[in-house]
Structure formats: C-alpha cells, structure tokens
Design goal:
mainly alpha; rod-shaped
Length: 249
C-alpha cells in the first residue's frame, strides 16, 4: 500500500476518534465527565501524546538518515563512474572500447538499480552482466609501462567499488515502519483525538482545528513513509545525474 493511502487511512481513523469522543460525551453519565475524571484522562493522554511525539520524531530522523545514506551511495556510484572513465581515458586508446561500453550500459544499469529498489529488498538480486564485462575487460588490458599498470589497478579497484556500492544499496532496508508498529501509532492517535472532543463541545471551529491537527499528524507519517522509500513516491532520488554522468566521447 502506498504512503498516501496509509496516511489517508490514519487521517480517517483520527477523524473517527474525534467523532467517537463527541459521541461518548453525549452518552456517558454526567458524573463520568467530572473535573476529577477530566484530570485523570488528561494526564494519561498527555503521557501517550508525549510517547507518540517522541516516536514520530525518532522515526522522522531515522527515515531522513536512511534517505541521505542511499542518496549518498547513488552519488558515490556516479562519482566512481566519472573517475573510472577519466582513468581509462588516461590509460590510452586501448581502453576506448571499455569507455564506449560504459556509456551504453549506464541507462540499463540505472533502470535495473531503480527497478530492484522499487520491487523491494525481498526480491532476488539481479547480477549486472554489463558491469561484470567491464570489470573483465579492464583485467584483460595489457599495460605497457608502470603508469598503465597503475591505472589498470585503480580502474579494477573502482569497478569493484561500484559493485560493492550497488550491493550496499540492495541490502539497505526500506522498511523502517513495520505494519504492527504503524497500527499501534494509529491507535495512540485515535485515543488522543478522542480525548480532545470528550470534554469539550464539538462545534464547527473545534472540529476544524482538530481536523487540521489530525491532518498534520497524518502528514508526519506520510513524510516518514516517503523518506523510507527513496526510490519510489514523491520524494524520489533522481536517476538523472547517474544517467548523465558520462558525456559523449
């Protein structure tokens, strides 16, 4: 289920909590709504609200950290490709076929990388035959002097680094919010918003304000879910820098 759909469900549930509180206010006996009862309920709800706020803050920080990590890994792959191409250019004309092959495989490589992340980490990792061929072709080069030998060694290492960076991206978890945890968080929000309308009349102004508060909470959850999946949705890591990393020869 998409982040927007999950956030929308939680928003509807919190609105239901508001209406539930208003319904309980009308049906409960008056002595159940005494000042002593209000104080006890407010203390309990304050505790739940504090826990929910802390959890939301930690989840946003964790999701942002995961997003930044995967964005950095994609940038590292892009930088390694540019550096590898420069090293092969310094090697000489013998490496030109490898550079041409790199340019022809960047698009399919990006498509495969984004597709793997969109399918999910549970999917089988797909080996990249083109990347393997680039590595093997680098190993097949026949250096004629010490400089070419050093450049070949650096190029082989960079090709290996590219494979490792792709593996790191593949194993990076995109599921920061398990479904049971999300359900518990939604339950907390329903309790909190039900308590708001339990002890105050639900007129148009109060309902509008509470709806805006509920929307804000749902937006926070939407932000967490979007940041935890940086290869899909609205907050997507762009593949354009990787695709345009190498200009024409």
């Amino acid at each position: 289920m998409s982040a927007a759909a999950l956030s929308g469900i939680i928003f509807v549930l919190t609105l239901g909590g508001i209406l539930l509180g208003a319904l309980l206010r009308r049906t409960l006996p008056k002595h159940h709504l005494s000042e002593e009862a209000q104080d006890v309920v407010r203390l309990g709800v304050g505790l739940i609200a504090t826990i929910a706020a802390l959890v939301l803050g930690l989840l946003i920080a964790a999701a942002k950290g995961s997003f930044d990590t995967q964005d950095t890994q994609v940038k590292q792959i892009t930088a390694d490709l540019i550096l590898l191409d420069n090293i092969l250019a310094q090697y000489g004309p013998e490496a030109r076929p490898i550079r041409e092959q790199m340019r022809s495989t960047i698009g399919p490589f990006a498509d495969q990388l984004w597709r793997e992340k969109q399918v999910g980490v549970a999917a089988r990792f797909e080996a990249n035959a083109a990347a393997e061929k680039v590595y093997l072709d680098i190993q097949k080069l026949s250096p004629q002097n010490d400089l070419q030998r050093a450049l070949q060694s650096r190029a082989a290492q960079l090709s290996n680094d590219l494979a490792q960076a792709r593996l790191l991206l593949f194993v990076e978890s995109d599921s920061l919010v398990p479904a049971p945890f999300l359900a518990i968080l939604a339950f907390w929000l329903v309790i909190i918003f039900a308590s708001f309308s339990l002890f105050s009349p639900l007129n148009a102004t109060v309902f509008t304000c509470l709806s805006l508060f509920a929307l804000s909470a749902a937006c926070a959850i939407f932000l967490i879910l979007e940041l935890s999946k940086p290869f899909t949705g609205l907050l997507t890591i762009s593949s354009a820098p990787l695709r345009n990393a190498l200009g024409p020869l």
